[in-house]
Every structure is written in structure tokens, then in C-alpha cells.
Amino acid sequence: MRDDLITLRQLTANKRPDGVMETTAKEKTIFCRVDSVSGSEFFAAGQNGIHPEYRFTVWADEYSGEKEVAYNGKEYRVYRTYRATEDLIELYAEERTGV
């Protein structure tokens, strides 16, 4: 069921002592189930300028609000989450362009 791997990435902006802003990334790779989004999800998100690609289902205790996902060499942005059960959370993601 959860036999694919994704890398969750949490980006943090920090100000260095010299005043320059610096972004650091904290990453973790976890198992997930990968599905296409439903037609209704695709059209509803499209109404808001979002181009959904995948629904990643992960263990809820492994997800900490990360908004960036790497999967199969591509970068995705999590635009919505859904708590499917007490133990599982669904991450709805669109491909990041210009990365």
C-alpha cells in the first residue's frame, strides 16, 4: 500500500549575523501511497489557479506541516491536506514550476 518514497522538505528563513536572509531546508524521506487526484478535485482546484497532480497518503505522525515534496525527481507544493483517518493524512500537491 505505502510502497513509494517521497521527501518532505520544511524551508526556514533565518537572518545571518551580517543581516542577509538565508533559507535552510530540513528534509526527511518517508513511505507513502501515491494516487492521482480525482476529477472533482482537479476542477475545483483549477478554479483557484491550482494545478493538482498527486495525492500522497502518509502516516499522520510522520507529517509536520511541510509544504514542499520531492517525488521522482520533481518538486511539488502541498496546497491542501486532509485527515483521512486518525492515522493517515492526505497531501494534495501541485508541481512547482520554475524550480
Rg over CA atoms, rounded to whole Å, is 15 Å
Mean pLDDT: 88
As laid out across the biggest beta sheet, the strand order is: 1-2-3-6-5-4
Q: Low-confidence parts, pLDDT < 50 over ≥5 residues?
A: none
Structural class: mainly beta
How many runs of DSSP E, i.e. beta strands?
6
Distance between the termini: 30 Å
Query: How much beta, percentage-wise?
Result: over 45%
Strand count, sense and closure of the main sheet? 6 strands, antiparallel, barrel
Q: What is the helical fraction, as a range of percent?
A: under 10%
Shape call: globular
- Helical segment tally? 1
What string, H for helix and E for strand, traces the elements in order?
A: EEHEEEE
Give your account of this protein's structure.
- The structure is a single chain.
- With 99 residues, this protein is mainly β.
- Helix content is 8%, strand content 59%.
- It contains one helix and six strands.
- It has one helix spanning 39-46; strands spanning 4-15, 21-36, 52-59, 68-71, 74-83, 88-95.
- Strands 1-2-3-6-5-4 form a six-stranded antiparallel barrel.
- A hairpin with a 5-residue loop joins strand 1 and strand 2 (21-36).
- The longest helix is centred in the middle third of the chain and has 8 residues, at 39-46.
- The chain is globular, with a radius of gyration of 15 Å.
- 17% of the residues are buried.
